[in-house]
Amino acid sequence: MLRRIKTLFSLTLALSLFSSMAQAVVVLQYHHIDDTTPKSTSTSPALFKEHLNWIKENNYRVAPLTEITDLLRTGQPLPDKTIVITFDDAFTSIYEQAFPALKEHNYPFTIFINTGSVDERHRRALSWKQLREMGEAGATLANHTIDHGHLVERLPDEKKQEWLDRIATELRTAEKRIKEETGQNHKLLAWPFGETTPELEQLVLNKGYIALGQQSGAVGLDSNKAKLPRYPMGAGYGSMKNFPLKAKSLALPVTSITPESSLAPTDGNLAPLQITLKPGQWNAGQIACYALGSTLDINWLDKQKTIFEIAMPSPLPLGRSRINCTAPGPEGRWFWFSKDWVRLTQDGQALD
Q1: For labelling alongside 45, which of 19, 87, 114, 157 has CA 20 to 30 A away?
Q2: Domain 25-248, what fold?
């Protein structure tokens, strides 16, 4: 009898853990849907249609970003097998190529707008008229700042509070322009280049925003609301060889990471990272982390194997870098977590 009770308890716990782990949403990040634009930020129209067809054929649901962020704001469970489609920079190919394909599937999507390029009618920038049309058709229109600058950079002799006040003004101004032109005001932000610091992340949380980065992984209830993960689809990262793996991924529930800053030291030498996980349906021996072309050694710090330490094999190069940590999960799916950094030049400049 006691053995039966223990078995039932174990099954209940396993189902509870699976239900918790399965609360993950995958957010896709696109820029250009075009064959002629820079490959680093482009997805071909043909490949984009393959993505949409895979989503439909595999019975995944496409949800509006606002539905998911509302759940995150209130701490409610997230739906499994759910995709969110986002576009950064408000390029014309979104209207010309992506919009017709999305309408065919009746899929909602989000466009993050850097308002300066639209106001100034930059080459390949959407017009407010086109944005309004897509908004009226169900698109979410959200904030990508005014000029898509490197927010981590400070102006010469700019003090910390002056820097934060300047960024707050930019976010407020862009949000106002979007509302003036489209009527939409969601307090959603996509970080330009995915670059942040703890101070910037705290700023947006204090202002009531939920923000999204460019580090890969699925969104879970423990994800950082100031920098939700997204899978970039440009530069070959959206190939059909890898797309199903990413679309089906689960959030590796990291509850803390130290040091937490995404701003790397100027010499690129990172202190060892300490990562804390919730218990879950993975084998600690199968968790693997990768960075700078290397597989990293994992040093477990507790008997329960929920806290581990990793060290970079070499200094980070200038620009943006990341680690990816993965582990096999249930039903052939993979748990996934990514942490990114930006290393500035000696004079405090970020690389495009």
Answers
A1: 114
A2: TIM Barrel (3.20.20)
Predicted local distance difference test score (pLDDT) of residue 14: 40
Contact between residue 170 and residue 176 where contact means Cβ atoms under 8 Å apart: no
Distance CA 312, CA 23 (A): 30
- Helix (H) or strand (E) holding 24, with range, is none
Every domain of the chain with CATH number 3.20.20.370 lies at 25-248
The mean per-residue pLDDT over the stretch 50-79 comes to 97
Q: DSSP for 120-173?
A: TT-TTBPPHHHHHHHHHTT-EEEE--SS---TT---TT--HHHHHHHHHHHHHH
Query: Which of 71-85, 124-138, 222-236, 274-288 bottoms out in mean pLDDT, i.e. has the lowest?
Result: 274-288
Amino acid at 309: E
* CATH 2.60.40.1220 intervals, the chain: 257-343
- Residue with token string 């129209």: 45
d(CA 136, CA 46): 26
CATH class of the structural domain 257-343? mainly beta
H or E stretch at 199? helix 198-206
6-29 confidence digits (pLDDT tens): 433 333 334 344 445 567 899 999
**140-144 mean pLDDT:** 98
Could you tell me how far CA 261 lies from the centroid of its own chain?
A: 16
Burial 265-294 (b: 16+ CB within 10 A, else e): eeeeebeebebebeebbbeeeebebebeee
Over residues 29-41, the pLDDT tens digits come to 999 999 999 999 9
Nearest Cα to Cα of residue 42 among 113, 110, 98 = 98
